[in-house]
Design a protein that fits this description.
Beta-Lactamase; 45% helix; 5-stranded antiparallel β-sheet; alpha+beta; 5 domains
């Protein structure tokens, strides 16, 4: 190392070869002659002046300076030693490497502390004297400690007391003893770990890592959310298991590699599988081998394998049905799950299959009974019409006098017979048309019909009845109503029944309106009266063939089937009948024909 000696005048008198090499001189004599200084002035004091201070104080002076040595800036530790009246000796030790290591250590420490500040866990570092040397930001937030409180490097005991004052320590029976036990972590030979359960429900995982210098590194990890999520997950798993086990369906979940992952008790029971076999999580091919033994046709087990493969690998949903050897019927489906697994659902549909078969048999019986009823009504109508025609014919002969003159009272009887024959024939036609319409076998002619003249004829036929009842009929419309396609005889009957219903429901002095018009949807006919009106429920029952009482509040069984037949005939023409009525406001029948 460079060394030198100054005389009483503080001038350089002697230097060694290291000094000569450090200042880049040729010889020591050249250094002495030119008084070349190794150390640069610092704070306005040159090396000779600093040496003078050491001599006057009679004490050595040591300082750290930066100087150029052999063309490089180096850190030096310079010492000036007073030698009484002889002068002052000095030497310089090169500490650049040590300083560089110190700078690197400080950079590493600063980087480490910055990194620790970014962690979510709280970090507290105590030095060998058990004082708090560093605490990261999560630690300060976790224990509500202000940053300024750390400036005086509080000791371990004081930090623990501060945590306790903030209710950030677990409740213990003997706090001094608990604190002494944590102080022993400084002398431990291995890390210590424990869980702290705080009063506010916070769960901390605490790790104490002894340091080589006698210090301690404490790590505080807040696991509250993790434990809550774990508890929630456990609850969900238990809920899922309980839900699976109480479903009516058999459930089995398969991984993409084909292994059985989950199943419920119904799955094991339906297929007769033991727990030991299922606990081994068998592959799908091995499981299908067991299932094939339960099938009525074992070869069909491949359809279950296709459904499982579609759900796990192809991510598609497929389904199917199978019959078991014991007579049961199963419906199964494969459902792809979001986690990549596939779920096989199996439902026992034996009862529904039996019920479906029974319903089909009952439906067939009902269809056959309906056909029998239709044929019976047609035959009975024919059988009724034949003698009725004969009765009407003989009555007409009696009325014409072919059998001789009859008395006035006899003529009244004959007229009553003819009137009853007409009414009975009309009722027979109504029953036949209604039954055929309900069965969908009503024969209809398809011809153009002038609608307004047809309505005029229907109204003219009832002119006498209107006069006897003391009613006025207002017929509105003209030929612009146009034509409709259908059966004129049956449309005449439908409108006649609607008009008859209005005549019956309207008291003496009332008024009936028949209005025909052309709309975009087709022809529209409105038959309304100023009668008593009906409640909506009563009106609905009247359309089913019941007679309305005189007060319009109740319905009774009626002999005629006018309204139901009118509705059936209009529906058969592709039209619609809408009935509207209010008590005291009358009733309106709105017919729309295409």
């Amino acid at each position: 190392m460079p060394m030198w000696f100054r005389g009483p005048d503080l001038a350089l008198r002697l230097v060694n070869s290291a000094y000569v090499e450090a200042v880049g001189a040729s010889t020591a004599d050249a250094v002495i002659a030119e008084q070349i200084e190794l150390i640069e002035p610092v704070d306005g004091l040159n090396p000779a002046q600093v040496a003078g201070q050491a001599r006057s104080r009679k004490l050595p002076i040591e300082r750290l300076v930066t100087s150029t040595v052999a063309g490089q800036r180096r850190a030096l530790r310079v010492s000036d030693l007073p030698l009484g009246d002889e002068g002052v000796a000095g030497y310089a030790a090169d500490i650049e490497d040590v300083e560089e290591q110190g700078r690197q250590l400080r950079r590493f420490r600063d980087a480490q502390r910055q990194m620790l500040d970014t962690l979510s866990a709280g970090i507290a570092q105590f030095d060998g004297k058990r004082n708090l040397a560093f605490a990261n930001q999560p630690f300060l937030r976790m224990f509500a400690i202000p940053p300024g409180w750390l400036l005086d490097s509080p000791p371990f005991d004081r930090v623990i007391d501060r945590m306790r004052d903030g209710a950030r320590l677990p409740e213990v029976r003997d706090f001094p003893d608990w604190r002494r036990e944590r102080q022993g972590w400084f002398l431990a030979s291995e890390p210590k770990e424990e869980a702290w359960h705080l009063g506010d429900g916070t769960h901390l995982r605490v790790v104490g890592q002894p340091m080589p210098d006698g210090g301690l590194l404490m790590i505080f990890e807040d696991r509250t959310e993790q434990l809550q999520l774990s508890a929630t997950r456990d609850t969900l798993l238990r809920t899922r298991t309980a839900t699976f086990d109480n479903l009516f369906e058999s459930l089995a979940v398969f991984a993409p590699d084909g292994r059985l992952q989950l199943w419920n008790r119904r799955f094991a029971a339906d297929w007769g599988l033991d727990d030991a076999f299922l606990d081994g999580h068998p592959r799908a091919d091995i499981l299908l081998g067991r299932l094939a033994q339960k099938l009525k046709r074992p070869a069909q087990v491949g359809t279950i394998g296709q459904v499982i493969q579609a759900a796990t690998l192809e991510r598609k949903q497929k389904s199917g049905r199978l019959a078991l050897a014991d007579g049961r019927h199963l419906e199964f489906a494969g459902v792809p799950l979001p986690d990549g697994n596939g779920m096989l659902t199996v439902l026992d549909i034996t009862d529904s299959q039996k019920a479906e078969a029974a319903l089909r048999e009952r439906n067939a019986a009902l269809v056959e009974a309906d056909e029998v009823k239709t044929r019976f009504i047609a035959n009975m109508s024919y059988e009724f019409r034949t003698p009725l025609t004969s009765i009407g014919g003989f009555a007409e002969l009696l009325a014409s006098g072919i059998a001789g003159e009859i008395s006035e009272q006899g003529k009244e009887y004959v007229a009553a017979i003819l009137s009853s024959v007409e009414r009975l024939g009309e009722q027979i036609e109504n029953v036949l048309d209604l039954s055929q319409s309900e069965a969908g076998t009503l024969p209809l002619a398809r011809e153009p019909i002038e609608l307004f003249p047809l309505l005029a004829d229907v109204a003219k036929e009832r002119a006498e009845r209107l006069a006897q009842a003391g009613l006025k009929l207002d017929l509105r419309g003209d030929k612009s109503v146009g034509t409709v396609t259908g059966d004129a005889r049956r449309l005449r009957r439908a409108f006649g029944h609607l008009l008859d219903n209005a005549i019956v429901a309207t008291p003496e002095g009332g008024r009936i309106l028949v209005e025909a018009s052309r709309r975009k949807a087709g022809a529209r006919v409105v038959i309304s009266d100023s009668g008593r009106g009906m409640e909506p429920a009563v009106l609905a029952r009247a359309l089913d063939g019941l007679r309305v009482s005189p007060d319009g509040r109740t319905v009774e069984r009626r002999q005629g089937l006018g309204l139901p037949l009118a509705r059936q005939l209009i529906d058969a023409h592709g039209g619609s009948l809408e009935m509207m009525s209010e008590p005291g406001e009358g009733t309106s029948a709105i017919v729309t024909l295409p």
